[in-house]
Design a protein that fits this description.
Elements: H1 3-17, H2 28-35, H3 39-51, E1 55-57, E2 63-65, H4 68-79, H5 81-97, E3 100-107, E4 110-117, E5 132-133, H6 139-145, H7 150-159, H8 161-166, H9 173-186, E6 189-192, E7 199-207, E8 213-222, H10 223-227, H11 231-250
Antiparallel strand pairs: 1-2, 3-4, 3-8, 4-5, 6-7, 7-8
C-alpha cells in the first residue's frame, strides 16, 4: 500500500474513534472538522462505513454505530480465549459466594470488562462490556498492572503520570514499582470504593501460557457486604479460579 492510500485508510478508520459516550451520533460536518478533512471526503468516508455496516443513518441527528459492530462483538465473544474457559468458573464462584463475578481483559493499555455473571443481588456496577475502565482504579486493573515487567510499567508511569497521581498512587518510579510489587507478591488485590464509592472487589490475574497477563477475574459487591466478608477467603477462591482458567488457556 502506498503512503497516500495508507494515510487515507488511517483517516477513514479514525472516524470510528470519534464515537464515545458523549458522542453517540456524528454528522459529516463534525467528522470533517475532527479528522481535518474536506466535507466531500467526510461524506465519502461516512458512506463507505455505512455501506460496510459499521455506521448507520439516524435521520437528521447524524450517523450512529452500525449493526456490523454487534456481529463483530458476537464473533469476538465466540473466539475470546478467556471467555472460552472462564464462564463455568465464574458461574461456580457466583453460586459459591453469592457475589457478582466479572472478567476483565487488557487490550494494549485499555482495560475492558468482557463478561459478568450476576448474583441474586447484583451490584450496581456502572461499568460493563465495552466501557473502558480507568487504568489505575479498582481491583482488576491493579492485579493486571502488577504483572507488567519493569520496563513496561515504567513506560506506563512516564506516559500517564497525571492519571497515576489522580489515583493516589506514588508518582516516583521506586515507589510506583514497590506498590505493584506488593500486589504481585500477594497474588490478589482487594479494593474498597476505588472505582465506584459504593462497591468493593477482590481480583486475581489471569495469565497466558507464556506468563503474559491476559486480564483479571473479580468478585464484586457493595462495600457494606464486603466489610462483613472474609476477604482472604474470597481471595483464595478467586485466585484458585483464575489459576484454573490460566491453566486451561495454556493447555
Amino acid at each position: 500500500m502506498n503512503p497516500k492510500a495508507d494515510s487515507s485508510l488511517a483517516r477513514l478508520l479514525a472516524v470510528l474513534d470519534l464515537f464515545d459516550e458523549e458522542h453517540l451520533r456524528l454528522t459529516p460536518e463534525a467528522v470533517a472538522e475532527a479528522v481535518q478533512i474536506s466535507l466531500p471526503t467526510a461524506y465519502r468516508y461516512v458512506k463507505l462505513l455505512t455501506d460496510a455496516g459499521l455506521l448507520q443513518r439516524e435521520s437528521a441527528a447524524g450517523y450512529a454505530l452500525g449493526p456490523r459492530i454487534i456481529v463483530l462483538d458476537h464473533l469476538m465473544r465466540r473466539d475470546d480465549p478467556v471467555l472460552q474457559h472462564a464462564v463455568p468458573f465464574m458461574k461456580e464462584l457466583v453460586a459459591t459466594t453469592g457475589l457478582d463475578c466479572v472478567a476483565t481483559a487488557l487490550y494494549g493499555e485499555q482495560m475492558l470488562d468482557i463478561h459478568r455473571e450476576y448474583s441474586g443481588q447484583p451490584a450496581p456496577l456502572s461499568y460493563g462490556r465495552g466501557r473502558p475502565r480507568p487504568l489505575f482504579l479498582g481491583a482488576a486493573p491493579k492485579v493486571v498492572l502488577a504483572r507488567f515487567g519493569p520496563a513496561q510499567l515504567h513506560r506506563l508511569l512516564d506516559s500517564r503520570t497525571h492519571e497515576v497521581a489522580q489515583a493516589g498512587l506514588p508518582t516516583d518510579w521506586p515507589g510506583f514499582r514497590r506498590y505493584f510489587a506488593r500486589v504481585r507478591k500477594a497474588g490478589f488485590y482487594a479494593s474498597h470504593g476505588e472505582l465506584e464509592p459504593t462497591l468493593g472487589a477482590v481480583a486475581a490475574p489471569v495469565l497466558h501460557a507464556d506468563g503474559r497477563v491476559a486480564g483479571a477475574l473479580s468478585l464484586v459487591t457493595t462495600v457494606q457486604r464486603m466489610a462483613v466478608i472474609d476477604a482472604q477467603k474470597l481471595a483464595t477462591l478467586v485466585m484458585r479460579a483464575a489459576g484454573e482458567i490460566s491453566a486451561r488457556m495454556a493447555a
